[in-house]
Each structure stands twice: as C-alpha cells, then as structure tokens.
Amino acid sequence: MAQLLAHNPGLAEVEDGNGNTALDVATQEQIIAQLLAHTSEIHPEEDMRTPLHAAAERGDDGIVARLHSPSLIDAVDCHNCTALHEAAKRGHIKVVAQLLACKPELESLNEEDNDSYTALMLAIKGRHDDLVVFLLAQEPSTINTGDPLHIAATVGSYATVERLLSLKPSLCDTTDLLGKTPLHYAAASGAEKIVARLLDHSPHLIDSTDKIKLTPLHEAVRHNNIKVVKMLLARNPKSIDAKNSEGATALHLAVEVGSKAIVAQLLAHWPALIDEETPMGNIAHVASFHGYSSIVELLLDLKPELANGINQDNNTVLHLFCRFTWQYRSSHDNAYVVFIEKLWRLNPAALNVINNWGNTPYHLALSAGDEWCVKFFQSKLSCEGILDCYEGPFYRIRPLLKRFCERPVGVVWGNLDAARLVYGYLGVEHVLCVKRCRT
C-alpha cells in the first residue's frame, strides 16, 4: 500500500463503482494512517456520510482518533446525523467519549437528527444503559431536549426512567407532539413496573388524554396488554368510561383489535358496558363487523338479546358476520357451523330482514360464495322472496345459482316487478334482480 501511494498519491482519492474511496472502505488502522497521509480532501459519499460516520458506526475508536477533525465531527449526513449520533445509536461509549472530548462545550449533545433524536435519546432507544449514564454525567441538562422519558417508557427501561425522574421529576407530566404522556407509552408497551412507577409519582396521569382523547387504558387495550389493563382499572375503575374522539370506549377498542381476554376482563369489571351503543350498532355488531366470532359468542352468551339488534343500516349481527364467511370457505369446522346455527336460533327473523342495501343474510352469504351458508339458509327460508334484490357482481353468484338453487331461477338486470311478470309466463318460480349499483 505504501509503495503504491508513494508512486501515485492520487490513488487515495480514486472512487470505485459505488462512489467509495479506499479510505471509505478501509478497516485496518495502519492502512487508514497511510491513506490519510496522502489524502488532501475527504469527500463525503452521496448520502453525505463521511469516513468518520462509518468509523463511529463500527465503533472503531482507533480510526476515530485519526479522523476527529472539527469539520468532520460537525458534518451531518442526509438524515442530519453526526458521527456522535451514529456512535450513540449503537452504544459505542468509547467513541462517544472521543468525540465529546474534541468539543468541550458539549453543544453537540443537544443536536437533533431528522427524527428529532439527540444522542441521549438514541442511547435510550437502543437500551444502552451504560452510555445513558455517561451522557447524563457529561451534561444533565440534555434531558431538556426532546422526549427522553417517553422513549425510556416505550422501550421499557426502568433503570433509565428512575434516573431521569431523579434528575427532573417534572418530565413525568410532559407531553409529546401527539399529546401523549410517558404513561401512554408505558401502557402501550406493557411495561408494568414503569406504569406503576409513573402512577406512584403522578396519579393524575391515569386520566390524561392525548390529542385524539386516548387514555393510558385505551393504549393498553389497543396493544393487548391485559396485565396493564387490570392495573389501571384497579387504580381508577371509572377510567373504563372514557371515550376517545370517535366516541369509542375501552370495550369498543378491545373488540376492534379482537382481544377476547380483555373484552371478558372489562365486562367482568363493569357488566353494564355490554349495553352501550356505537355508531355501528351494539357491541355485538362491532365484533361481527370485524369478523371475530369468538367475541360475538362471548357477548351473546352474556346477553342473547344482542342478536336481535338492528343498526342504522338495518343490519343484524347475522348480516354483518355473513360478510366474512369467505374467510372460512376452505374449512368449515364444527365451531363455525355451530356459530352460524346459534346466530340463527337466537334470531330466526334475521333471515328475512332486508338491510338498507336491499340484502338479507342469504344474499350476503351468496355474494361471499359461502356454499355451506347458502345451503343452510335455503333450508330455513320459505321459497318466497329469498333471492329478491341481491346486490353485487353477478359473476360471484352464477356458479352458486347453478349448484345450490333447487328451483328454476330467472336473472334480470333492472326492474324486479317487470321481470316477475315476464318470467311468470315462462313458469319460472324465482326471479333474481341483480342491481348494478353496488359491487
């Protein structure tokens, strides 16, 4: 290497096909020293990363010692990251110490990358506790920049939470750009010990809401953290009534994410919640809309009358569930069959209910291509009107009409009464009017 550079010093700055010079890809200190001696200028790559960025990322303190010129230490890449950010992100404490030693004023500790992360916040995010201790010892005031406690709560670092609160207790009550407190993030991450610590410090946070009125209980429910849910309910039972900006309670959110265990826990804590109405109908409508049969069964076991509910679109629970029967088409196990039969037994009249789009549960099962449901509903329906007013693409139902309709069926686009009159002369008993307006 030394002989090549002595013969042609320009080789040190020649770039390969990826735009890298020999210095960019070198790893051995001896070679780097030789390259630095023959390099008149260090060119940043296309992403604006300098060799110092690469060395800090790798944790090569020997190389960093040779590249720590002020211009390189202050250089930022396309993400506004300095070499200090790269070292902190990966927990390279010795490299961080080298870089800080070159800038005694320590203002670089408060510099943020494009994601508004300081070196301290990156160290916390990476759970590099020894580096966090080191950085706080260098400049405790760095905790005033960004949201370090929020990050510690998110990653579940109890030791860092304690350390930050000891330095500045008021951090517990701060909110980020979304209006969330550290307790929101601890509840979402399921960090029980941190949740307890934050509530011991600031009990009022249990009722805190973010910009869309989500409480810590809502966050715990949304992320399926049942132990945190129990903890929060034990601290403040009334928090179960809180609604977000869309009017959803913790129970509604638990149903939407499909957490049967939390649904059961919430109803055991406050049984009256089962009677709450939502824009989608009763709570069983919500569960059916999302296709969670096990939650629907749980709700109907507690209150069978929910099966009789009709929402603003004139849908029963059976209507909404039939939208999802395609999910079970490949394997109709016994549990699925029992569930459909249970819905029918609880509300037989649902088969004759026509929703605002002109569909009965039969039409929806037909549209979904559910052969078992089509047969089952046919066996329970009278021959009058079961195929009237189907809305949907005809290609979905053509095979089913041929295979499962026992009587002659006429299909027409348009006016149902006129079609019946025409087909009546032909002796066709059933007429299916397929509308073009919905697919």
Report on the structure:
There is one protein chain. The protein has a domain at 147-269: Serine Threonine Protein Phosphatase 5, Tetratricopeptide repeat. Helix 23 (361-368) packs antiparallel against helix 24. The strands form two sheets. It has a two-stranded antiparallel ribbon. Strands 3-4 form a two-stranded parallel sheet. The protein has helices spanning 2-7, 22-25, 29-38, 51-58, 61-67, 70-74, 83-89, 93-101, 119-125, 129-138, 148-155, 158-167, 182-189, 192-201, 216-222, 226-235, 250-256, 260-269, 283-289, 293-302, 317-322, 334-346, 361-368, 371-380, 394-404, 416-426; strands spanning 277-278, 281-282, 409-412, 430-433. The model is unreliable at 37-44 and 383-439 (pLDDT under 50). It is mostly helical and 439 residues long. 50% of the residues lie in helices and 3% in strands. The longest helix has 13 residues, at 334-346. The protein contains 26 helices and four strands.
